[in-house]
């Protein structure tokens, strides 16, 4: 918690002599709208953690106020704030305030009421504690669709051969990074997918959230390696299919970070667990190395660089082909 600033709540009489004067910016705060103080610290720079640790809970906390809420951000870099500007605007009609900055006039921000912290987190990833709120992850997805003006509400529904009157082509989005956690045989995967009838787009979903949202929303099927952009499944249309390619030794993370959360998101989930020979680790370590024989023996600071950050995948397209066929079958349902 070293990256989280501590705030102190003090109770003082309204006429206390040491009570600071309200800022000249009070003109923006002179209504009855409350303020919400929340932190962007810790792991907000990580796309997945931005959603699971902050943005989902922010939606749950702020949504009931119907944009009549001042957002007070602490521990936030200006680039982080700018990155999700669309979301702030969808949750508040007011300009986001960096509460860590000292006012030029030395005075204080004044509000009728301040809410401290976010709610709705239940300890699970990309999920909402429905015992605390009326909102669900489906509501969060609908909110994102509205905020980012995403037009596609549902994935394509393929017809059977007997029912076909028009040719419908499912869109497959392959998330492929250039440096780490990447597919080393992307062209081979694309060729196989096109042979099955997919229209294929290959891209690295980057820090441009609006662009990533649009690309994901257009897809009927989205596939990627664990930790390489699958968080964008929050933008997929209803009944789309997400395929998680699970690298060697990261099964638990794959299940808890994306497998289980997908159940609450109106998407169908498939996963493909690679074999050892499909991992780039086989070129770095001998077959009898502890990297293969006992991955659980590593501490996190050792485990993460080996398995999470620097493991690429050479997909066995023959073995993977049935997964793409199953995705097509799901699009018929």
UniProtKB/TrEMBL annotation:
Record key words, sorted: Glycoprotein, Glycosyltransferase, Transferase
Subcellular location: Golgi apparatus membrane
A GO cellular-component term linked to this record: Golgi membrane
Limits of the Glycosyltransferase 61 catalytic domain: 47-243
Pfam families attached to this UniProt entry: Glyco_transf_61
Primary location class: Golgi
MF (Gene Ontology): pentosyltransferase activity
Glycoprotein keyword on record: yes
Source superkingdom: Eukaryota
Glycoprotein recorded as keyword: yes
Membrane topology: Single-pass type II membrane protein
Protein's name in the database: Glycosyltransferase 61 catalytic domain-containing protein
Annotated source species: Linum tenue
């Amino acid at each position: 918690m070293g990256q989280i600033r501590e705030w102190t709540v003090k109770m003082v009489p309204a006429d206390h002599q040491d009570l600071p004067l309200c800022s000249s910016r009070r003109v923006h705060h002179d209504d009855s709208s409350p303020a919400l103080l929340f932190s962007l610290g810790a792991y907000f720079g990580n796309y997945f953690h931005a959603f699971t640790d902050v943005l989902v809970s922010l939606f749950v906390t702020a949504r009931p106020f119907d944009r009549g809420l001042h957002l007070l951000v602490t521990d936030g870099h200006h680039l982080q704030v700018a990155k999700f500007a669309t979301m702030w605007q969808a949750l508040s009609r007011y300009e986001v305030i960096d509460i860590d900055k000292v006012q030029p006039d030395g005075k204080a921000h004044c509000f009728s009421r301040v809410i401290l912290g976010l709610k709705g987190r239940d300890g699970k990833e990309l999920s909402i504690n429905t015992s605390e709120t009326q909102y669900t992850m489906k509501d969060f997805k609908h909110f994102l669709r509205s905020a980012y003006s995403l037009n596609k509400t549902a994935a394509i529904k393929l017809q059977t051969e007997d029912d076909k009157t028009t040719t419908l082509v499912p869109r497959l989005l392959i998330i492929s990074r250039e440096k780490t956690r990447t597919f080393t045989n992307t062209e081979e995967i694309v060729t196989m997918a096109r042979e099955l009838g997919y229209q294929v787009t290959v891209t690295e979903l980057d820090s441009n959230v609006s662009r990533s949202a649009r690309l994901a929303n257009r897809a009927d099927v989205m596939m990627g390696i664990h930790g390489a952009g699958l968080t964008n499944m929050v933008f997929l249309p209803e009944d789309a299919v997400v395929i998680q390619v699970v690298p060697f030794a990261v099964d638990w993370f794959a299940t808890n970070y994306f497998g289980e959360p997908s159940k609450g998101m109106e998407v169908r989930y498939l996963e493909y667990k690679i074999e050892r020979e499909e991992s780039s680790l086989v070129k770095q370590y001998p077959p009898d190395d502890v990297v293969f024989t006992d991955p659980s023996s590593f501490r996190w600071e050792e485990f993460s660089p080996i398995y999470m950050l620097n493991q690429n995948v050479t997909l066995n397209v023959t073995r993977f082909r049935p997964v793409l066929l199953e995705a097509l079958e799901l699009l018929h349902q």
